[in-house]
Specification:
Number of helices: 10
Oligomer: single chain
Helix content: 55-70%
Mean pLDDT: 78
Strand order of the largest sheet: 3-4-5
Distance between the termini: 34 Å
Radius of gyration: 30 Å
Order of helices and strands: HHEHHHHEHHHHEEE
Shape: elongated
Length: 298
């Protein structure tokens, strides 16, 4: 899924989310102005309005994730599973495909809000173990539902990426809380809480460096999972030769100005006439037998 496709898809899915959040905010506003404000002096009726707003955002976020992963999908992958860790990264590396890497990154980004919003909703989720439990349970639920309903494939990489996203969101929350509490940015807190994006950034930089050091790049046909080939036996009726043969590796790129010279050299053509019309060239050529050819260059 390319960037434009993701943008259009998100724009389509965000409409019901915005409507739901808008309705929630309207209900909260009505409750506050018509009831809560008049009785807030009663201790038992004290409600944290900020948490209500954060809760409304969280409900909208959950609706968005469910639309993206469950309700907005077809049903064509019944009981399909991929339990090979990091296979999506290996496949993207073999293809050197920005599109495939985008899918990995998007799965991380999708769970970042959960790691930020949960600690703001409940103090319990300020403890990492409870937040981690909810994040892992949520992504397991999504993957299980997808594979049972046919809406998607149960992929171990999705669980890993979603969990990384939740942890990163939690780190962002801790970083913001540290800045608010200490009234300044502490370098130790900054580096510690930005460890995941820093490591991911170093990973992608290193990946590009390694790739461009390879003369021929990667082979997209390389397998991204390991298979047991002990019981596989190959036979052929073809007579295979062991003699070395030459094969082209590079495709020669011919610039516009070199086409005419190449044709004259390879085919023995001679130039008869050249007409230049605002950068478009029409060249009349003739071979040794007198046959004429017209070459158009634009």
């Amino acid at each position: 899924m390319g960037i434009n496709e993701i943008y259009n898809y998100l724009r389509f899915l965000m409409l019901p989310v915005i409507v739901i959040i808008g309705i929630e905010f309207v209900l909260i506003g009505l409750y506050y102005f018509l009831y809560y404000r008049n009785r807030q002096s009663e201790r038992k009726l004290r409600i944290d309005i900020k948490k209500l707003f954060i809760g409304a955002l969280f409900i909208g976020y959950v609706d968005f994730v469910l639309e993206l992963t469950i309700f907005g999908r077809g049903h064509s992958h019944f009981l399909q599973m991929n339990l090979h860790p990091f296979s999506s990264y290996i496949e993207a590396w073999n293809k050197y495909s920005l599109r495939d890497f985008q899918n990995c990154i998007f799965n991380i980004i999708m769970f970042i809000p959960m790691g930020i919003l949960l600690p703001l909703i409940s103090r319990k989720f300020k403890a990492f173990k409870w937040l981690f439990l909810v994040v892992v349970s949520s992504t397991l639920f999504i993957e299980t539902y997808q594979t049972l309903s046919g809406a998607g494939i149960f992929e171990l990489d999705d669980i890993i990426n979603n969990t990384l996203g939740g942890i990163f969101g939690y780190q962002l929350y801790r970083l913001a809380a540290s800045i608010v509490y200490n009234k300044r940015v502490r370098m130790k807190s900054l580096l510690g809480n930005l460890a995941i994006p820093l490591l991911m950034g170093l990973f992608f930089v290193g990946m590009n460096i390694v790739y461009f050091q390879q003369e021929f790049g990667n082979l997209a046909i390389n397998s991204f999972t390991k298979w047991n080939m002990e019981d596989v036996h190959l036979t052929t009726s073809l007579q295979l030769s062991s003699a070395p043969t030459a094969a082209p590796v590079y495709k020669k790129i011919i610039h516009r100005d070199g086409v005419e010279a190449l044709l004259q050299q390879k085919l023995g053509l001679s130039e008869l006439k050249v007409v230049d019309d605002h950068g478009n060239r029409e060249i009349l050529l003739k071979d040794k037998s007198g046959t004429q050819y017209t070459l158009y260059l634009s």
